[in-house]
């Protein structure tokens, strides 16, 4: 009879322990479900907020003076857009530094600041570029040879390809002509610096023939032509031309003027490009004044 109460007590304690364990398990499960729901809600809210930042019409940039205050920098959307802007700028800068040499990069940024070079495939494209500059030569060698009836003007042959700012990268320079190794779209540019020296002479010797002193020099046009030569056609093909007629003051001892032109052209492998001017003897062949170049775009 004494064992019966003890047996009931043990059963009661066991039921209490089982109930406590069950309640604790239920509490843990409910807590887990609750926090999981909260985390899912926060994740969905954050995702929608990030997308809305990118899809917002008035995205804020670092150049916007109205958004550069403390209030703007505390905005999560402002921080997201700034990180994207910096990442894009860094990626584009790194890409252009690898594909374009420093000398040609300055030329591109001045003429085509928004030029985008796209890779045709995953294989690396060979770097093809050339920048040749004027080279001072004796007067006897500065005439550019005999005039060619197939082209206008006199060809400039005294180009420097190794010293100073000049360079050749997978391009040959032969007889004043750039020879490209492969077909593609090329950016070609040329600048010539004209210097007309007006020498004082007896006016009576020129009045009858020219009317006034130096009028024959002052009135002559300055011309620049850019040609290409292809193996399948005998006559060189004119790509660009530029002309200028300037009347300088009679009191000046010399006159200065520069002509620049550039463009994108399709060239084939082995094509040759060269520059002619109306009078080679009037060209100032300083490397920073007269230059000529080309590089492969695509």
TrEMBL record:
Q: Tell me the domain of life.
A: Eukaryota
Q: Name one GO cellular component term.
A: plasma membrane
Query: Does the UniProt entry include the keyword Transcription?
Result: no
GO MF terms held by the record: cytokine activity; metal ion binding; tumor necrosis factor receptor binding
- Membrane topology note: Single-pass type II membrane protein
> Which InterPro entries does the protein's record reference?
TNF_CS, TNF_dom, TNF_ligand_10/11, Tumour_necrosis_fac-like_dom
Location within or outside the cell:
Cell membrane; Secreted
The protein's matches in SUPFAM superfamilies, at most eight in alphabetical order, are given as:
TNF-like
| Any GO BP annotation | positive regulation of extrinsic apoptotic signaling pathway
Keyword Zinc in the entry? The reply is yes
Specify which residues bind Zn(2+) according to the UniProt entry for this protein.
247
Q: What's in the keyword line of the UniProt record?
A: Apoptosis, Cell membrane, Cytokine, Membrane, Metal-binding, Phosphoprotein, Secreted, Signal-anchor, Transmembrane, Transmembrane helix, Zinc
Stretches assigned to the THD domain:
128-297
Mention any Pfam family matching this sequence.
Answer: TNF
| Segments passing through the bilayer | 12-35
Q: Which residues, if any, are the signal sequence?
A: none
Functionally, this protein is described as follows: Cytokine that binds to TNFRSF10A/TRAILR1, TNFRSF10B/TRAILR2, TNFRSF10C/TRAILR3, TNFRSF10D/TRAILR4 and possibly also to TNFRSF11B/OPG. Induces apoptosis. Its activity may be modulated by binding to the decoy receptors TNFRSF10C/TRAILR3, TNFRSF10D/TRAILR4 and TNFRSF11B/OPG that cannot induce apoptosis.
Subunit comment for this entry? Homotrimer. One TNFSF10 homotrimer interacts with three TNFSF10A mononers. One TNFSF10 homotrimer interacts with three TNFSF10B mononers.
Question: Can you tell me which family this protein belongs to?
Answer: Belongs to the tumor necrosis factor family.
Mind telling me what this protein is named?
Answer: Tumor necrosis factor ligand superfamily member 10
């Amino acid at each position: 009879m004494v064992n019966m109460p003890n047996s009931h007590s043990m059963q009661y304690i066991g039921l209490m322990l089982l109930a406590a364990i069950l309640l604790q398990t239920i509490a843990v499960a409910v807590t887990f479900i609750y926090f999981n729901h909260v985390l899912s809600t926060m994740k969905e809210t954050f995702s929608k907020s990030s997308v809305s930042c990118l899809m917002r019409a008035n995205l804020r940039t670092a150049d916007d003076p109205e958004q550069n205050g403390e209030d703007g920098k505390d905005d999560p959307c402002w921080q997201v857009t700034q990180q994207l802007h910096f990442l894009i700028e860094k990626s584009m800068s790194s890409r252009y530094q690898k594909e374009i040499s420093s000398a040609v990069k300055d030329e591109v940024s001045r003429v085509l600041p928004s030029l985008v070079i796209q890779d045709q495939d995953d294989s690396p494209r060979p770097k093809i570029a050339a920048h040749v500059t004027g080279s001072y030569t004796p007067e006897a060698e500065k005439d550019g040879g005999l005039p060619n009836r197939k082209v206008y003007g006199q060809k400039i042959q005294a180009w420097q390809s190794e010293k100073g700012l000049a360079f050749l990268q997978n391009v040959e320079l032969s007889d004043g002509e750039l020879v490209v190794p492969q077909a593609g779209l090329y950016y070609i540019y040329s600048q010539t610096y004209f210097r007309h020296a007006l020498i004082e002479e007896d006016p009576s010797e020129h009045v009858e023939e020219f009317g006034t002193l130096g009028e024959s020099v002052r009135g002559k046009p300055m011309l620049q032509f850019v040609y290409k030569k292809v193996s399948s056609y005998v006559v060189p093909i004119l790509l660009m031309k530029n002309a200028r007629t300037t009347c300088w003051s009679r009191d000046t001892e010399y006159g200065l003027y520069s002509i620049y032109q550039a463009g994108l052209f399709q060239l084939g492998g082995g094509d040759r490009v060269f520059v002619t001017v109306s009078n080679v003897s009037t060209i100032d062949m300083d490397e920073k004044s007269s230059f000529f170049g080309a590089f492969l775009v695509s």
